[in-house]
Write a structure and sequence with these properties.
Blueprint: E1 5-8, H1 10-26, H2 28-43, H3 57-61, E2 66-70, E3 77-84, E4 87-95, H4 115-118
Parallel strand pairs: 1-4
Antiparallel strand pairs: 2-3, 3-4
Helix pairs in contact: 1-2
Length: about 130
């Protein structure tokens, strides 16, 4: 079975960090669960990332950008990524209600990897390449 390397680019890392800080200020337990599980969703892209639909942005940007969703209800996020050769590049993580009054934390702090991914840290270009 073919596997792609999953690379979380710096803007996506910042998006995740800001969302985690925002959520932690309101629901600390939910923030930890969300943070760990979003990396599971991102990691799932190592197998057949083309299963995910094209994002609406693809048309206006004239490039193939795909999306996968993570979370439920008011904690739903869109993970935007591209697929090139053997790599998946996660570009951004957007809240489902982006622009809907929900503001991320003012500062950007890139959090450490979730514990279940730390053993693979040497294999990661920016966060989770080479699951």
């Amino acid at each position: 079975m073919k596997r792609w390397s999953v690379i979380v680019e710096l803007p996506a890392q910042r998006d995740i960090a800001e969302a985690r800080l925002w959520l932690a200020a309101r629901e600390p337990d939910a923030a930890e669960h969300w943070f760990n599980s979003i990396y599971d969703t991102i990691g799932s892209l190592e197998i057949f990332p083309e299963r995910c639909p094209l994002a609406p942005e693809s048309k206006s940007l004239n490039m193939e950008i795909r999306e996968i969703f993570h979370g439920r209800r008011h904690h739903k996020y869109r993970i935007l990524f591209t697929v090139a050769e053997n790599e998946v590049h996660v570009l951004h993580v957007r809240h489902g209600a982006a622009g809907g009054g929900r503001k991320p934390a003012a500062r950007s702090v890139i959090p450490p990897l979730p514990p279940h991914l730390q053993s693979r840290a040497g294999q990661h270009r920016t966060a989770v390449a080479g699951f």
